[in-house]
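Write out this protein's structure.
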Amino acid sequence: MERLVYRSRAVWPAPDVALDGILTASLVNNARLGITGALGFSGGRYVQLLEGPASSLDILMGHLDADPRHADLTVLVRGPTEHRLTPDWSMARADLTRVAPRVDALLEAGDGLALTALLAALVHRGVTGVV
């Protein structure tokens, strides 16, 4: 199993509109692929934590790379893990508004490990719209 965090730039439609569609599709697709994770938005960028089999993450990343709702997809961290940080959610929506300046700084720095920890902490504190 692997853990992956990426960032991308929101393109179209507006993220507040796109997030609901992304989360709805994630419920079905992630469950089918054995993927769990958390998705957030801050400063014009999406940030997502994904966990699951390497082959499933490869499939999902192929779909994400072709998704017209965002551009400039950059993997910040990817590697093996023995346990999931988000085992109970096929996809959780992490509310990043309370920590926006911190998230924006981490996104700017490309600090995937710190973003992983932050997203997991937000999900476990209930600062989400879990789906």
